[in-house]
Amino acid sequence: MDAQVKPVDLEQIRKRPLFSRISLERNCLGAGLAIVMAALYFTFISVVAFSPGILAAPISPGSSISTGVVAGVSLMVFGLVLTAIYALYASMRLDKLASALRKEIP
After folding, report:
1. CA 104 to chain centre
2. Half-sphere exposure of 93 (CA within 13 A, CB side)
3. From CA 70, how far away is CA 66, in angstroms rounded?
4. Buried b / exposed e along 73-99 (16+ C-beta atoms within 10 A)
5. Quick count: other Cβ atoms within 10 Å of Cβ 30?
6. Are 18 and 100 in contact (CB under 8 A)?
7. Helix, strand, or coil (residue 66)
């Protein structure tokens, strides 16, 4: 059995308010999370460049673990958390909007 695939008018989809809403929310979320991650990363790199002694200090007296290690690992974990936030928001909100848009299109 051959399933007939109807051609999609992309301009018709682009003009729909729901499509604009999806695009706006996705772009704002992505840009916002990227700005947060970039700010944290560049703050970390600035501290490495201009005040390395801060990151070289041990987390407690006698500890062999430096604050730089903790800060670096925390930065990576925070990146994963931001990715999880994006994935959850996309699956809970954007996927529903995309499904509603598919139902609107004849």
Report:
1. 28
2. 13
3. 7
4. eeeeeeeeebeeebeebeeeebeeeee
5. 13
6. yes
7. strand
| Tokens 């801060």 sit on residue | 54
pLDDT digits (tens, 9 = 90+) for 58-67: 999 999 999 9
pTM, 2 dp = 0.79
pLDDT-derived band at 5 (thresholds 50, 70, 90) equals low
Please name the amino acid found at residue 6.
K
Choice among 6-10, 57-61, 91-95, 97-101 with the minimum mean pLDDT: 6-10
Helix, strand, coil percentages (3-state) for the chain, rounded to 5, are 75, 0, 20
Handedness of CA 56, 58, 61, 63 (dihedral sign): negative
